[in-house]
Specification:
alpha/beta; TIM Barrel; single chain; 15 helices; Immunoglobulin-like; 23% strand; five-stranded antiparallel β-sheet; eight-stranded parallel β-barrel; 2 domains
């Protein structure tokens, strides 16, 4: 089969001369039509299960694909789902976006700030983030990292249950809102990193399966059916999405969620091909201590939670679950002295390590101050979770808005079962993820940042990238050039001298 069939993007792409080119992979259907402007127009078969054609349509038009004259479904590569995951897709001309190019991002100077659009502000939109950017830049942040914004069930959620990966979530402001945020961040001198999920899709993903074999039984993931990257079209669905964000939206980097659950036995792994085709930073989240992203796939950096786990256990004494292997000063020193530390994204808190707790509670203020100081003084690439700059006390809880009652009930029950045997949460009532108040409790405030953190971020740029680390008892001492950080884990105090 000629490679030409894969050289044009899937979805609905407005043409300069007028009309819209529609392309969809649908090997499960004999015929595919576009229903737009009150009429069905059949696409031609282009080979390899792809149906394509130019239709009399324009940006702003709503449409669905009609399979075999019967089943009407949204576009698997929809750019906008204004009425949610069960509504029609909408044609978007991303070439019209006016987005200032972003700053050059280097790992040695990168300071990430992870935020959830829905709970970062009272409004919960892309536009509402914009007035907060200048203060983040003053703090010393160099790039914001958005938790996933692809269209997911309902209006509120973490975003990891996205279904239409190329459609910026309508409740946040849709494609135009995201474009405005990226442009504003760039004008403020901030880069934008976007969290993307290529290991599974959320409830409702059976709509994708109606078009073709997106999923495989050969592997399983914790969250749902594994995606079948042995299919060339499925690779293009994912990599094309990455290209959309980095090219059309000028997003400066991608954080790939849970890559240990992306399975591919092809000669060239899909994540290696993604790296070769995408401009900007590629950062992988790898659950276990597995360095394939750096050693085999050519990614720039990866999340490694080991340093977080050592700090957390030393400060809290919690040893249940995956914390059982951590909590020694020797382990802490080992994590702080890993080779090529700039290629490891490290954090005192992140959405997982807060939100995956039963009640989404953050570290106590004194423990957090010590942990974040160690992170910022280290040579790793630091990530702050929204609110850390002022020791935020609001929790970040697990919230959903599933439109399917069965899925909603299963989510509630699964959350209760998950924490039933954890002694550290005994007697605590696990918040109902579907309840609006669970979402509302997770909104952060915006007092002035702590000057201590701003100073530590400033020193990252000024101090030599050499670190000496030692531990005596439960006291950690870190030296960088003329500066010394002493962290006492018994007293929960931290002192910086220069």
């Amino acid at each position: 089969m000629s490679t030409q069939v894969w050289q044009r993007p899937f979805g609905a792409v407005p043409l300069p001369e007028g009309g819209v080119e529609f392309r969809v992979w649908a090997p499960n259907a004999s015929t595919v039509a576009v229903r737009a402007r009150g009429a069905d127009q059949e696409l031609e078969q282009a080979g390899a299960g792809v149906h394509a054609g130019v239709i009399d349509a324009a940006p702003g038009d709503d449409y669905v694909f009609v399979l075999d004259g019967v089943q009407a479904l949204p576009d698997p590569c929809s750019r906008h789902q204004p009425k949610g995951i069960r509504g029609p897709s909408r044609v978007v001309d991303t070439s019209r976006f006016e987005i200032e190019p972003g700053p050059a991002l280097s790992l040695e100077e990168l300071v990430l700030y992870e935020l959830h659009v829905g709970t970062f502000t009272r409004e919960g939109t892309f536009d509402a983030v914009i007035p907060r950017l200048a203060r983040l830049r003053t703090l010393g942040v160099t790039a914001i990292e958005l938790m996933p914004v692809a269209a997911f069930p309902g209006e509120r959620g973490w975003g990891y249950d996205g279904i239409y990966l190329s459609a910026a979530h309508a409740a946040y402001g849709g494609p135009e809102g995201l474009a405005r945020l990226v442009d504003a961040a760039h004008r403020e001198g901030l880069g934008v990193v976007l969290d993307v999920v290529y290991n599974h899709v959320g409830p409702g993903g059976d709509a994708l399966g109606a078009f073709g074999p997106y999923f495989t039984d050969a592997h399983e993931t914790f969250w749902g059916a594994a995606i079948d990257y042995s299919q060339r079209a499925v690779r293009e669905w994912a990599i094309g999405n990455a290209e959309l964000w980095t090219h059309d939206y000028k997003i400066d980097g991608l954080r790939l969620d849970a890559v240990h659950a992306i399975y591919d036995d092809s000669p060239v792994h899909v994540l290696r091909e993604l790296r070769e085709r995408v401009d900007g930073l590629v950062i992988s989240e790898m659950g276990p201590e597995d360095f394939r992203p750096l050693e085999e796939w050519g990614h720039d950096a990866m999340w490694l939670d080991n340093l977080h786990h050592e700090l957390h256990v030393l400060l809290t004494g919690e040893r249940e679950g995956y914390y059982g292997a951590y909590g020694s000063m020797e382990g802490l020193v080992r994590e702080l002295t890993r080779p090529s530390p700039q290629r490891l994204v490290v954090a005192a808190q992140n959405h997982d390590q807060v939100g995956n707790r039963a009640v989404g509670d953050r570290l106590p203020a004194d423990a957090h101050r010590l942990a974040l100081a160690v992170i910022l003084f280290s040579l790793g690439t630091p990530l702050l979770f929204m609110g850390e700059e002022h020791d935020e006390r609001a929790p970040f809880q697990y919230f959903t808005d599933h439109v399917d009652p069965f899925i909603a009930d299963a989510t509630r029950e699964g959350r209760r079962r998950e924490f039933a045997e954890f002694a550290s949460f005994s007697g605590e009532e696990v918040p109902d993820p579907q309840a609006l108040e669970t979402f509302e409790r997770s909104r952060i405030a915006h007092p002035d940042p702590d000057p201590f953190y701003a100073e530590l971020i400033r020193l990252r740029r000024e101090l030599p990238r050499d670190l000496e680390v030692s531990a005596e008892g439960r006291v950690l001492t870190m030296h960088r050039g003329p500066a010394t950080l002493v962290a006492d884990f018994d007293a929960r105090t931290v002192e910086l001298t220069r």
